[in-house]
Amino acid sequence: MTWSPTDHPRNIIAILRGITPEEAEATVEVIVAAGITQIEVPLNSPSALKSIGLMKKRIGDAAGIGAGTVLSARDVQDTRDAGGEFVVSPNADKDVILATKQAGMMSCPGVFTPTECFEAIKHGADILKVFPAFIMGPEGIKAMKAVLPKDKPVYAVGGVGAADFPAYIGAGCAGFGLGSNIFKPGNTVQDTAANAREMVEAYDALEGLRAN
């Protein structure tokens, strides 16, 4: 299946950079239980493809599992073969976007300029990942959103936490990619569960703002 952002109650992608296969199943369970149903395993994590497969087998259709730091068409195919359903990249690589769409997966390339945004859209990107968001800031995103298609979701990723949600939502962001605010190497499962719940509560508190 193609995992669409509209399939999820919250536009949050949990980025599990550095996770190991030994941690994968317990970690994905607590994150999904907290209410986050888009999980990214960056490919520069230890045995990332194995973690993707374990997570998908454990969680089934309760969540979408994808790969991050995807840099080549080969990475896309490996992700698909492992059971991944979406692809996230730090950059807007035409070959990666095209390979992702040809494989029937959701494409979420990293962008930072209007040129990159429109090139990514032209090749089929589903979500525009502004990265690193903390450098552009809400005002920069707001300015860029003014020229982008209204129906193209923009996620803020990189240096964004719960306290920043109102400003980025106000700037027109549809969602967030959250890394160390949810998981970082050395976390216990309990740490990750508590972090995920905190992010969900902060996101849900903005329902009125997001509706506008």
UniProtKB/TrEMBL annotation:
GO-annotated molecular function: lyase activity
Gene3D superfamilies xref list: Aldolase class I
Stored InterPro entries: Aldlse_KDPG_KHG, Aldolase_TIM
Keyword Lyase: yes
Pathway: Carbohydrate acid metabolism
Pfam family of the protein (one): Aldolase
Domain of life per record: Bacteria
Keywords assigned by UniProt, alphabetized: Carbohydrate metabolism, Lyase
Subunit structure: Homotrimer.
Similarity remark: Belongs to the KHG/KDPG aldolase family.
Protein's name according to its UniProt entry: 2-dehydro-3-deoxy-6-phosphogalactonate aldolase
